[in-house]
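Example record

Each entry pairs one chain with its bound ligand, aspartic acid.
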Amino acid sequence: MTGEVVAIEEEKGPDYGRLQWRILIGFVLGLLGGILVYTFARDAAWVEPVVTYVTNPLGQVFLRLLFMLVIPLIVSALVVGIADMGEIRALKKVGIRTLVYTVIVSSIAVAISIAVTNLIQPGAGVDPVEARAMLADGSEGAQGILERSSEAKVGVDAVIGLIPSNIISAMSDNDILAVMFFALFFGIGLLLTSGPRTETLKQAFEGVFEVSMKLIGLVIQLAPIAVFCFMFNLSAQFGWELLIKLAAFVAVVLLALGLQMFGVFPLLLAFLAKKNPITFFKETREASVMAFSTSSSNASLPTALRVAETRLKLPPRISRFVLTIGATANQNGTAMFEGVTVLFLAQFFGVDLTLGDQIFVMLICILAGIGTAGVPGGSLPVIALILGGVGVPPEGIGLILGVDRFLDMCRTVLNVIGDLVAATVISAHSTDVTGAEVTGDETLAAPELSS
Ligand code: ASP
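Structure tokens for the complex follow.
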């Protein structure tokens, strides 16, 4: 996306750091306030009106503002993400390999995260009566925002159901997969049509994306207050148990990310690229540090490009192509985080996710790898969307926001290192292409790094 890197750099001004602190303060104060109420004033008469007329409505306002922006954001990100793959036409084999690699490795990542969360059940064990009461409150609020997508379909119907017969009704029904299908299809259409008018249309989608991101940035300013309200409501109801569950959640996210980073990536490197994983991790340290400190794949792109060329010594044309596409379209850490979070919150609120629901979550997480912006907190709107789709109270977002900063730093490292692994593997298999088809116009796949 043109100029995106610059925009992101601007976005990551000193304000972003301050906002994170404010969110953390809101989180801690809400948690402490709620726990005090849980311990000393659980049955006090004032608690109910405070929750009903103050904390609950404030939280709902924040969520509605966020949901309002999700459809324009996801549609524009997907359309532009696919249309930007225009270089595929020029790089043929490399493009197709990148696509196939991304889909397979993202699927492995999401499968690991879903398996680990099902196995460890970090969110389970909350008093079922309380959880159900919470669920009733939550889903009531959530219903107005997000209708549960039409009755879960199975088998052939589920596959046919991916294709919307009417895109407007798919949007209003919140049929996320169908909307994503349309956006992908539209993106392919845009990719195949070239001319001044379609170029203008693509720019318009880029404009929609930029405006949506800007507005989400504004809404996020309200996060400290909203997080305070969510945490207050939840901890007044669940007390200390909430903290224990949250710690378990953080541990499971780190475990899942660790399995991909130190299990799957070394295997891919050793077997598909004949590269020593330890050497690889040493050579890519600079990119890891950058990703960890900025929490943004896009902001880390210039460093990743330099590392690929100077340290890993990958052919520039291939690495530039794979890394540029990967910064937005290959986000293993993000896909894993989204999977763990949705399952954790479902367990926490006692929502039984059927196999069909879990497959739905998996598919969305894989697609979300393409649709999630590579900026700090980019996962947030996508998680909100998936929660609504599987009937988990979106208020659960408040629960994870307080710990999101640290987990964002960790998952971004996986996103960026995952792109470098992809570039290494694809380069190893494209030496023929490097010599014949790929060399030539060096600027074709060069990313636009205007900073
Ligand atoms: N911060 C992540 C990235 O830039 C996106 C996310 O998962 O929030 O890669």
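The pocket of aspartic acid is lined by residues 295-297, 331, 334, 337, 372, 374-379, 408, 411-412, 415 (CB under 6 Å).
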